[in-house]
Design goal:
Elements: E1 2-4, E2 10-11, E3 27-30, H1 35-43, E4 48-58, E5 63-72, E6 89-91, H2 94-100, H3 106-109, E7 117-125, H4 128-151, H5 154-160
Parallel strand pairs: 3-4
Antiparallel strand pairs: 1-2, 1-3, 4-5, 5-7, 6-7
The chain binds zinc ion.
Zinc ion binds next to loops.
Amino acid sequence: MMLCLTCGLQRPNSYKNNTCPRCKSHLKYIEAAAKGTAVKLHKAGLSVSYATAEVYSYNSYAVHTVNISIGLAKPYQVEVLRRLPEGYEYVFPEAHIIEYLSHIPIEHLLSPLLTYCVLRYEAQYLDNAEAKAVLKQKLIELDDWVDEAVEDGWLAICNLGGLL
Ligand SMILES: [Zn+2]
């Protein structure tokens, strides 16, 4: 879906305009499974550019890859993202990002909102049910990470320090 993180308005992926018709904010490409996490990051003050969370099956469904990618629209320093949940990476290189964005419709990639870095979890499983359970669990861990960073004032400190 194309989602306005400011007012919550949703539009289908085929929607051709990048601007929210209600509040004029930028619409973001957000997959349904990642919606709750993207909203939480936005409310915590982190700028999200897109969010995908899916299980991809390869080799005639023999391998199931869990991929969670949360694009960030500012080049946050690693200190901001201290102690990410286990298995998550914080990646910068642009060429690398394009590879992972390959399934996002091209018109959304060409939007003026840049992705500077990506929070990513990727791992392969032989069992599809296990992969789906890991996808859910890893999103919960990221949600908990945001809650913790808000509750103990870490993101407020980063904000005061000009890091957000
Ligand atoms: Zn809006």
